[in-house]
Amino acid sequence: MNQIKASQIKETLRIPRLDDIVPALLLMLAARAPALGVYPFGIAFFAAAFDKSVAYIGIASACIGLMTSSGFSAIPKYIIAYTAYWLFTRIYKKHEEVVCSAACGAASLLGGGVMLFSGFNGLYDIFLLCTESIISALMYIVFKRSRLMNDDRTKSGGMSQEEYISAAVSLGVFMTGLGGIGIGPVSVSNVFSVYAVMVCALNAPAAVAGCTGMCIGFMSALAGSNAVVMMGVYGMSAVFASFMNSFKKAGCAIGYISGTAVTLIYIRNMYDVPLTAADTLIGAALFLVTPGIVHEYFRSFFTRSLRVESVSPDLRMREYLTMRLRKCGEAFSSLRECFMAVSEGRLKKYSDDVGVILDETADRVCSGCHMCGKCWQTDFRRTYKNVLELIGVIEKDGRLRTDNIPAHFCEKCVRAGSFINEINHVYELYKEDMLRRSDAVVTRNLIAGQYGELNALFLGMAGDVEEGFTFLEKEEERIVEELDKNGIMPYEVSAIESTSGKCEVYLRLPPAIKQTAVEGIISEVLGRAVAYEETESGLSRYVSRPSYVFDTAALQLPQDGSKANGDSVTAFVTGDNRFYAIMADGMGSGSEAKYESASVLRLLTSFLRSGFSVKTALGILNSAMCLNMNNEKYSTVDIMCADLYTGETEFYKIGSAETMILCGGEVKIFASSSAPVGILSDIQLGGRSVTLREGDIVLMMTDGITEAGYTVSRTEWIKDIMIRPYDDMEALAKAVMDAALEKNRGVAKDDMSVMAVRMLSC
Questions:
Q1: pTM of the model
Q2: Where do the structural domains in the chain lie, given as residue ranges?
């Protein structure tokens, strides 16, 4: 039990150390600083920044400060307050700022309340006591946030602007505590105030330095009647000094002295200002002779973000996402290389396995033969050559028989009949094993291809994130200004622009706002038309309107005798304002072909709507279909991709029929030279690019249209139909379909599908 009590005492109080000297001196200065005839700053500093394990040192320092400032009369009151707060810290261990601040004010109130019993002079005493308690509670927060007692500057990373102000007020309190101390006309308080303002001006921008100077000036002169005047003098001098901080210490000193001189000129009676030229010059001299290592320590109090422009959050996020996506791509690229290396090694190994046939056949037939030693040992080279000749005959004729076996082999081998049967059987097993292994290699290559496509996908996404958009910060400010002029106050704004030129603006607005008015304001600021799109979770989204739209029409007719058309057709616009028209033709006709083409179309649509590029989407789709070896599915694919802002259009054709483009009065024809998806593991995905303008027409068809009336594709008759004028694309699609049926004499010999699209300006 005695050991436990000793441990508790050791935790509560400890022996003083050298590093307790500075906090004790600061507490003494804070205890000396008066405000309205009371001394609330000492208890606040004791509560916020002093180590309670040497509380007796703190109380003694505060008593010395009070004794040298106001005499012995105030000491009992504050001893009660300090002791009460120390006892509170022994009970309450959480250190919550609000609770501790209230406790500090309560301790001050308790000490003053006890002293009121011994000498009550009226309601003014109660008012003064309440005011002192409030100041103590507030100053607890100020001292706490000033972080002046933070020993580890490397971890803190400097102070925020709020902490700067708190530190400046704290310094002003300490300067007030130096009041009354001087040598002749020189005031120690003024000298150190000048010094502190210059240190801040050397390391901080003009705004922070000016604010700090005002705080120090006001607090340091709080005991007098000219606190506001001193606030102006120090604040303006700090601004001048900060303007000159590019010239290091000398520039700050010259700027400060110049600012003080200019300020004093505009004061009517400068002799009433408790700041002499000697104070200013001595403070500047101390600042100049301070060693560089000391200034480095002072600089650790200042955050670097005030000196160096920080990287914008969107750039940091883009760099982070780009790095992660590229690393994912590198991982899939490594997997692809691993699979390809294994496949190549296995193919090489399998091609050298012909000796397996010889060994297996010899074990089955020659074991136990009395001629085995002569054939496979004495005359090994001749025997080996003869067996290789037999394998050549099998590869040529498909099977070794008695009529195609070399005569010299029968003369030498005493078990020729058994050898023929066994080598045929072993060779068949070998070929089956080779096919199985070859399929495994093909499968690995296809999986490697999938990994390669995923690598391309991640790299593409990394490029989109890195260069895909920028934040329009200036436009955001202008949007807020213009909305405010029109009586609309937004709570939140964000504007971004993609590399394609698309702009998006997100606004959080008050309810019952007319969207048309907001659209007009944003359009005027951005210099392009925008339209309201949706409101989700209170955030309204406005997007720039595209330059073009497409008039689209599609007609389909199933093969005669079939209930379903095996072709699938779709057209849609993605979130980045890209128009896609896709046509897929499943192999054959009917419901099975429809299932194949619809599956291809569904997957492609999902990929493209998710932001995948056409090449990546087709690559993943093709390798996935090739892997489905037990249920082979093939389909042609015809894709048109148009940028609705620029009119840039790309065409990708995989085994599909011709696409015809009426552009500037001239008809162009794009044909495919590649196999449908799902047949070859490596398909050619080269696209054709065209810039479409208003009125240009694209006609996409399946071979049921292009081969109508012929056994091969013919398109001259389609050209004649395209160049005619049409009110809408439904009329063009119907004209092509009717003409194709007429050429087939009214019979649909194959599934027939046609899609006509025309570009129009918005």
A1: 0.48
A2: 1-146, 152-310, 351-443, 469-544, 548-761
